[in-house]
Amino acid sequence: MPDTASTPDRSNAFSQVPVEVIVSVGHARPRISELLGLERNAVLPLDRRVEDPVELFVGDRLIARGQLIEQSGAREGQLAVRLTEIIENGESLT
Questions:
Q1: What CA–CA distance (Å, rounded) separates 7 from 4?
Q2: Are the C-beta atoms of residues 92 and 60 closer than 8 Å to each other?
């Protein structure tokens, strides 16, 4: 029987590994000619409205949805996401 006192907790070892979370606010499908014509201050319309939920991905897995918020206090003006839905089984893009 293994000695559990000396066996490292593997879940704890991985808990400190950083992961990149990508927040998707929308998509655009311009033609190449439209992209080539873009200049400074051009506007590229997205398929979502400001109040629509954003999606959070780790790799290609959807992990949550939420609302963009602006932080206040010491982080005033910085964007953040308030989670409104946690995806249990991680929907994939593919």
A1: 5
A2: yes
Residue 20 backbone phi and psi in degrees, to 5: -90, 125
DSSP 77: T
Structural domains in the chain, sorted by start = 20-92 (2.30.330.10)
Beta bridge partners of 64: 56, 86
* Model confidence pLDDT, tens digit, residues 28-70: 999 999 999 999 999 999 999 989 999 999 999 999 999 999 9
Please answer whether residues 58 and 87 qualify as being in contact, where contact means their C-beta atoms are separated by less than 8 angstroms: no
Contact 65, 85 (CB under 8 A): yes
pTM exceeding 0.70? yes
Contact by Cβ (8 Å): 71, 80 = yes
Give CA–CA dist 19/59, Å, rounded: 9
Q: Which residues contact 15 (CB under 8 A, 6 or more apart)?
A: none
